[in-house]
Write the structure tokens for this entry.
Amino acid sequence: MFAVYFLVIVYSGWMFWQARAHHPFDPYPFAFLLFCSNLVQIVLMPLIMVGQNVQARHAELQAQHDYDIDVMSESELRLMQSKLDRVIAALDAQGGQSS
């Protein structure tokens, strides 16, 4: 968010400076400002794309890790359910059934 605030201040300052100048070198359509911002975007585009690839890979690894934990949890829950079923069956066999 710092970059957005910085760019808003720079662009606003540039436009205010050129609007108030007696002989502006970059008049109203601000073609030079647009050119400079496009250069920055072109230079930073590979960095952004690599960052997105790194984030995507991290998200895939996190999803796989979450899936593995869910599978282990499911097997433990099935084991606990089978033990609980055996305990209930043993109580029923002893006549401890309450109705």
Observations:
- Residues 31-93 form the longest helix (63 residues).
- The helical segments are 2-20, 31-93.
- The radius of gyration is 32 Å.
- The CA atoms of residues 75 and 81 lie 10 Å apart.
